[in-house]
Amino acid sequence: MLKPSHCLPIAALVACGAVLADDPPRQDGLWRGTLGAGLNVTQSTTDSLNVNLAGDAVRATTQDQWNFAAALLYGTSEDADGVETTSANLGRIGGRYAYNLGPRLFGFGSLDFNYDRLQEIDLRSVVAGGLGYRIIDTSLHRFEVSGGLTYNRTRYVSETVNAAEALLAEESNHKLSASTTVRQRLAVFPNLSDTGEYRLQFSAGLVTNITDDLNLTVTLANNYQSNPQPGIDPNELLFITGISVAFGPK
Fold first, then answer.
1. What pLDDT digit, counting tens, does each position of 28-70 carry?
2. Domain of 137, in residue numbers
3. Domain of 239: which CATH number?
4. Residues 76-95 pLDDT 10s
5. Which residues, in sequence order, are CB contacts of 111 under 8 Å at separation 6+?
6. Total domains in the fold of the chain
């Protein structure tokens, strides 16, 4: 189901692990990030309301890097007969720590919590760890691959499921101009406890600097789970646009 929303980019925050910044993080040990809120109201044959809050922060040194991200998205719609439907109700908070083991090799650990009422997920807790390798690491282009293991505890409306998973991921940033960056991430989680089942998370976004502190963002994200709860669509597609405000030292 496609769920368009004019709000801030949560899609890039959904995937396990850190979100790459628009530029390589400065390795000075200082915190930087973005904050924002979005609101979209439509009044027509069908009335709709979408509200979003989002934020992320990064701290990097020559040896390690911390990333944190959080997001909330809520949307409702009401038809001509006055019947109200929830179109989105999800949230996520998480972080990742990465430690450089060499010029391009790094180890990482992450912890993520999220819920998605439309997928009947009351709370999903995922702890992960593994290794990554930066294949390309320049000021214009970055591309890295990573792999590891996760422990996934998901509390659904009707049951709680625990599973060990493998983690296979790739992500990249490409600076198209002084003001525009394209970024994408793909992560696959094969289920090791219930072989044959898996989760997949993909996000792609375009970031354009309006000013030094304001960014215009367009994001497309797709989340797929091969074994959802009965009656739930295994695929969830999100299209999001918005504006974020940067904070921290210049």
1. 999 999 887 777 777 766 678 888 888 899 999 999 999 999 9
2. 2-247
3. 2.40.128.130
4. 888 877 788 888 889 999 99
5. 94, 95, 125, 126, 127, 128
6. 1
